[in-house]
Amino acid sequence: MAKRKINAALLLAAGEDAHLQTSFPEAQITKEIDGEIFMEVSVTDIVNNPMQPRININDDELLELAQSIKEHGLIHPISLIKKTDDTYMLKAGQRRWLAHKLLKLKKVKAIVETNSLILGDERKKQLFEIAIIENTQRDNLDPLEFALSIQNALTQKLYKSMEEVADKINKSKSYVSKVLKVLSLEEVILKDLLENKSTNDIETLYALQKIKDKEKQVRLYFDFINKDIDRAGIRKEVQGKVSHAKQDIVIKRTAKKLTLNVNLNKLSDTKKNELEVELTKLVDKYLKA
């Protein structure tokens, strides 16, 4: 998605009305500029962005934001879309809106889009892209929420391909692919990511999902969370798993013949000699039985 243009005139108008108090009984409005106005909106008249990727909000962070708004006021207005039923849909500023609700404030300053021609799926795409970009710019969107949001957009067929999604949210195709792979992690890991937001390290989570041994994957995940292993260590574990997948012993058997191929690369000359002796004894045992 192209970067949103900053409407300087609207921001100036908002600045002129920065003295507006959220306790005023009626919404105060500036003049409309390019289909948008700066005004105060009742907190209860706002509905959340249906394409919002964030599932959980950190209580401590929300409380900290609420305290800041209480002490200094709202510095950046939230962004809304005027709906036909006298309600407003959130475009950007979910945490600021929730902080106002937490403070039991009746109104919130907002820049409101009043004359939108964007409808249906195009509107959903716009809401998705704005929400993703807003959250990723702040680096506070966890990988699971990110993955679920992208999957939801693809399931709704808002985009033709993963490549199109990547382009619209200003991410590489490989990055989006790695994010989606998070969904293939074990359920206990997904539960921890959802409830505790233990890490936002996409690269490590991507590496972990390559480990097909479920117990090992979970163990290494929590080792990583507890800082008993780092990303490099996880990658070594993955590489080790791949190398182990190459069989050290290959046995081929027909009706009259058995062929044994053994990978001797890891053995010293002494061990090779010992193995040869033991194998010879074993074969003799069965042939002479």
Describe the protein in words:
49% of the residues lie in helices and 12% in strands. The strands form 2 sheets. Strands 1-5-3-4-2 form a 5-stranded mixed beta sheet, with helices on both faces. The longest helix has 19 residues, at 269-287. It has 289 residues and is an alpha/beta fold. The chain has 12 helices and 7 strands. The protein has 3 domains: 8-121, Conserved hypothetical protein from pyrococcus furiosus pfu- 392566-001, ParB domain (Alpha-Beta Complex); 142-244, Arc Repressor Mutant, subunit A; 250-287, no CATH class. Strand 6 (249-253) and strand 7 form a beta hairpin. The protein has helices at residues 8-16, 59-72, 94-102, 120-137, 143-155, 162-168, 173-181, 187-196, 202-208, 214-225, 231-244, 269-287, and strands at 36-42, 46-47, 78-82, 88-92, 107-113, 249-253, 258-262. The model is unreliable at 1-27 and 242-246 (pLDDT under 50). Helix 2 packs across helix 3 (94-102), helix 5 (143-155) packs across helix 7 and helix 9 packs parallel to helix 11 (231-244). GO terms for molecular function: DNA binding. InterPro entries: Chromosome_partition/occlusion (IPR050336), HTH_ParB/Spo0J (IPR041468), ParB/RepB/Spo0J (IPR004437), ParB/Sulfiredoxin_sf (IPR036086), ParB_N (IPR003115). It comes from SAR324 cluster bacterium.
